[in-house]
Automatic annotation (TrEMBL):
Name this protein carries in UniProt: LacI family transcriptional regulator
Stretches for region Disordered: 332-352
Pfam families noted in UniProt: LacI, Peripla_BP_3
UniProt key word Transcription: yes
Keyword DNA-binding: yes
GO molecular function list: DNA-binding transcription factor activity; transcription cis-regulatory region binding
HTH lacI-type domain sequence ranges: 5-61
Cited PANTHER family: HTH-TYPE TRANSCRIPTIONAL REPRESSOR PURR-RELATED (PTHR30146:SF148), LACI-RELATED TRANSCRIPTIONAL REPRESSOR (PTHR30146)
PROSITE patterns per UniProt: HTH_LACI_1, HTH_LACI_2
Amino acid sequence: MTRRIGIKDVAREAGVSAATVSLVLNDRSSHRIPAVTQERVRRVAAEIGYAPNTLARGLRTRQTRTIGFVSDRIATTPYAVRMIEAAQDAARANGHLLFLVNTGGDPELEREAIATLQAQQVDGFVYACMWHRAVDVPPTLPTGSVLLDARPVEGDFPAVVPDDRGGAVAAVQELVDAGHTRIAYVDIDEDPAPLASGLRLAGYLEVLERAGITPDPALHVRGESDAAGGREAASRVLELPADRRPTALFCFNDRIAMGAYAAARHHGMEIPTDLSVVGYDDQQLIAAELDPPLTTVALPHAEMGRWAVEVLLGARDRPSAEEGPVLMPCPLIRRDSVGPPPTRQQPGRRRA
């Protein structure tokens, strides 16, 4: 095993005492040690490969400059990778290293992960979920931990979640502004339904009410959360009589929207000439790659990941329990899948 380079090695090579090296490398030398000596100590330390013993330093300072990031399935989810990247960047910017544990949603593994990270004396925890949901916080999760993409059923834990209702309002308003009055919501079919489903439905209904549009129950359909489910569910509304058939679809996610594209083409419809579509998630390798590229709502994974770490480390104000979870805005990403309804298009002209 390679021997670890220590303070005594630096002292011997620099021709100073170990105490001098410790003072210099811990930035406690002040004016007592000449600048030329400080420069020599740092140069020698770099040349011979000295690295501080963070565990020993943690025992002295009661800080290890590390964060425990416990998640369910985020590390295996392509569209949530930005959450981890942003959390790592925020940790690094504040002088910390992030330890990631992906539990796969296994409660026993979750408890073991928290216990192991506590034994390593991490400075704090971020408890993250793959999708917006209410969670029973593990009883062993320390006070002061921050919840990411989740809200606690009980307990005073700062939390950040996407503003799913606000994102739906932006999506449906885009369709209303384009002139659509028959707008279907292609929802997800899961039992129990995820929080996002109800919140996006509430946003959909809010815009219809504000626009004076009476909701048609036949235009709220549900399907599996994939392209096949989206195609089947979208087909149901596209087969309605002409006077009830939607001219626009608001889809729960981009995978469902991808299926809606297939359904439209199966029915001889072009997007957005005959049918406008808006998705949700801005999922990589789907939204921007569809033909035409999909207008969608982006989940603020990076912004939420950064917020959680900054709140944990005190770089951002910690919200009070009365404020509840912080709602992170979900921006609308405009592409080419939205146009005016067919009856309002000029003959022989298509939207570029």
